[in-house]
Design goal:
globular, single chain, 8 helices, mainly alpha, 184 residues, 63% helix, three-stranded antiparallel beta sheet
């Protein structure tokens, strides 16, 4: 089993079984896969019966390969794990933008590598910047990148929960289970 497979299985374990919380705009979900995502990927059955294997394939194609988080894994598996987990919970594009934002803030004002577009699309420029970051910062860079990503993600959750929004129902759990859950 590959590291990516382990990451996906970990996400499925954290996401758990069937849920249909009235405050969740995603509606009925199983293994963290919303009904809309399941339908967009060809599943037509009752969400209670979504097979784990179908959820796994959706995660692999939509949340790992499509946003190029598998390419990040070739450079640093822990950072890829964080991006995959964040992408599942907050959106792949948003997770990629947080990654690009962090890379831009950690490049010593462009001395270590040039700023990159924060467009949420991980391509050669982002991957090259990350390679340069890792060469410059090594193992400590992984820990700092994970912290930066957690900070950006945590801020997002707190903004969602502001003003007594329905997302306040989820803020504690998000901060308890999604922030700091990937260690270097």
């Amino acid at each position: 089993m590959s590291k990516i497979d382990d990451i996906i299985n970990g996400v499925i374990a954290v996401e758990g079984g069937y849920v249909d919380h009235p405050s969740d705009p995603g509606g009925a979900t199983k293994y963290g896969i919303t009904q809309a995502v399941a339908r967009a990927n060809g599943y037509e059955g009752d969400m209670r019966n979504l097979p784990k294997s179908t959820a796994f394939q959706i995660y692999k194609m939509r949340y790992v390969i499509a946003p190029n988080f598998d390419d990040v894994a070739e450079i640093d598996e822990k950072v890829a794990e964080e991006l995959i987990d964040s992408g599942v919970n907050a959106g792949q594009k948003r997770a990629a933008q947080w990654f690009q934002e962090a890379l831009n803030h950690l490049n010593s004002r462009g001395r270590d590598y040039a700023d990159i577009a924060e467009d949420g699309m991980i391509g050669p420029a982002t991957l090259n910047a990350f390679r340069a970051f890792k060469r410059r910062r090594g193992a400590l860079g992984t820990m700092v990148m994970l912290r930066a990503l957690d900070i950006l993600q945590g801020g997002h959750y707190l903004r969602l929960a502001s003003d007594n929004s329905k997302f306040e129902d989820f803020a504690f759990g998000w901060l308890a289970h999604r922030i700091g859950n990937v260690a270097a």
